[in-house]
Design brief:
The complex is a heterodimer of chains A (110) and B (114).
Chain A lengths: L3 E2 L3 E5 L4 E7 L4 E9 L6 E6 L3 E5 L2 E6 L4 E6 L8 E9 L5 E3 L3 E6 L1
Chain B lengths: L4 E3 L2 E4 L5 E6 L6 E7 L6 E7 L2 E4 L8 E4 L6 E5 L8 E10 L4 E4 L3 E5 L1
Parallel strand pairs in B: 2-11
Antiparallel strand pairs in B: 1-3, 3-8, 4-5, 4-9, 5-6, 7-8, 9-10, 9-11
Classes of the chains: A mainly beta (110), B mainly beta (114).
Chain lengths: 110, 114
């Protein structure tokens, strides 16, 4: 089936670096996206990897390795406002449908 | 540019009642999606429209859920009759940026079925 697994929760302190992993058991997708969702808010787009390797956008970076069926989101210089849920998502060739991962709740402490 | 609008933001109903949600996508966006997000889970696609035609409704429980997008702009999602397990946030999203596969989400409607 098509599934994307993430750790359910990650905690860290302000200023730290945290990595949120996304492993999948599927193939045939355009790329891996990451979305951020604050409590009570809508998911908002963070980054996208079409190709293997690292994409950097400010404090956030995202990585994809299709051969390892694995990706991650790296958050640096953590701030309290980064406390949110983070979802990886892929768009599959065969269904043209965006499938979201299980989600990771990040809690940043002072 | 105005974002995706949804209403109402919150709705509380009793089981077996009916409810409808409304979505106005970003102007000019041809593709519109409805997602169901149960607490603690990722969004699950219910239905996808391209203009006023349905592209994918394979995950829509058609015995109780219906959706329409008559003029290719606004859309409504209806549940009739509601069940306890329908308690969730219903998210509307519009257009996918083909370059980055970005979807733009509305604030959602939080439905509680008692």
């Amino acid at each position: 089936g098509q599934s994307l697994e993430q750790p359910s929760e990650v905690t860290a302190v302000e200023g730290a670096i945290v990595q949120i992993n996304c492993t999948y058991q599927t193939s045939g997708f355009y790329g891996l996206s990451w979305y951020q969702q604050h409590d009570g808010g809508a998911p908002t787009f963070l980054s996208y990897n079409a190709l293997d390797g690292l994409e950097e956008t400010g404090r956030f970076s995202s990585f994809l390795s299709r051969s390892d069926s694995y990706g991650y989101l790296l958050l640096q210089e953590l701030q309290m406002k980064d406390s949110a849920s983070y979802f990886c998502a892929v768009l599959f060739y065969n269904t043209d449908k965006l499938i979201f991962g299980t989600g990771t709740r990040l809690q940043v402490f002072p | 540019e105005a974002g995706v609008a949804q209403s109402p933001r919150y709705k509380i109903i009793e089981k077996r009642q009916s409810v409808a949600f409304w979505c106005n996508p970003i102007s000019g966006h041809a593709t519109l999606y409805w997602y169901q997000q149960i607490l603690g889970q990722g969004p699950k696609l219910l239905i996808q429209f391209q203009n006023n035609g349905v592209v994918d409704d394979s995950q829509l429980p058609k015995d109780r859920f219906s959706a329409e997008r008559l003029k290719g702009v606004d859309s409504t999602l209806k549940i009739q009759p509601a069940k306890l397990e329908d308690s969730a946030v219903y998210l509307c999203a519009s257009e996918r940026d083909r370059v980055t596969d970005t979807q733009y989400f509305g604030p959602g409607t939080r439905l509680t079925v008692l």
